[in-house]
Amino acid sequence: MNFKKINAFLHLWLGLGSGLIVFIVSITGCIYVFEKEIRSLYEPWQYVKPQQEAFLLPTQLTGLATAQMGGLKPNSIRYGQKDEAVTVSNFNRKKGISVVVFMNPYTGELIHTEKKNRKSNPDFFRFILNGHRALWLPYPIGRPIVGAAVLIFVLLLSSGIILWWPKKWIKSIRDKSFKIKWNASFKRKNYDLHNVLGFYTFLFLLMISLTGLVYSYKWYSKSLYWLSSGGKSMKEFKRALSDTTATGTFKPTDVDRLYSRIVASDQTENILVSLPEKPSDAIGFVVYLKAGTLYKTNRYNFDQLSLKPITDGSPFSGRYDDASAADKLRRMNYDLHIGVILGIPTKILAFLASLISASLPVTGCIIWYNRKFKKKKKTAKVPLTGSKKIADPPVTKEKQEEKELVH
């Protein structure tokens, strides 16, 4: 068995084995791309009328929101853009339960309150995300399955481009490799949809898959950083901790002082403020420098008593401008994966690529079914009469397409 046959064999059976999982992961990813834009259509409480006034300080917002949180203490505040509501939240990571209060950032007016439970959340996009990440299975079971399927998909993309590669770069073969024959039979159109669309989305799907593997395998994540940094080891992200041996009392007004200082110095688009709940917790700020993305951020942590800066040396810590090229690339990983890196244009590309990705297992399965199970019509053999041979019947359009449908 030569290389081409081995490659075709692996492409077929790896595709059939992982097809359903690839379809689910791709179609859920496709739906999730425009989550923010779709939510804005049915969640009007996310927006307010923009004003020229400054936003209220953290202590002013938490003081107004606490009464709506059922006795829970706020542990985060998210400031948006001028036309967005500010949210004051309490999130219990262990139980997966959160209470979110939407407020007018200029007046403190209460707009909406949400209570969410990760395990029984009826939210449509949470349902989609759970399918994308773990096939709606418990995460310890579903995530490894998704990771393995994505790894196989990378192999399928590589083997697929080898199968697609034209034997000769003459015009007739180029046309078959780069164009879909829309006026052909269904079998031929399906074959072209698999091969041609697979080729055009190859690089996009490879990028989406490789960035997704970062969240599935630590060995892959560390290896990718090692390669991009020129042989440096990646420091693991660690939660910033305050000095618990120091004496004193946490002052909420210190958060106001730090917030005001950061707003004055950084060109902020959004700010996430993490409030300490325990003596070991730090005061945290994630400053988003580019709206709609996650990579371009300045991340600060301060001791809750001394207000001294704390850093863990991970790729996500500190100012974006001070980060190395490898650290910036790691920060970009999520934005590259979901297609928000350049805004709406890359979102559209990610949407179309994910949609085509979902179609590849379907069109591939149809190609396999047609070759394996669809019976070809048999033509009766006409006996020779005397010394004359009856001429072969003319080659029909369908017969010609049958000959062309070979990898």
TrEMBL record:
It comes from the Bacteria. The keyword Transmembrane applies. The chain crosses the membrane at residues 12-34, 145-165, 197-217, 348-369. Residues 378-407 are annotated as: Disordered. Keywords: Membrane, Transmembrane, Transmembrane helix. Residues 389-407 have a biased composition (Basic and acidic residues). The keyword Membrane applies. Signal peptide: none annotated. This is Uncharacterized iron-regulated membrane protein. It comes from Pedobacter steynii.
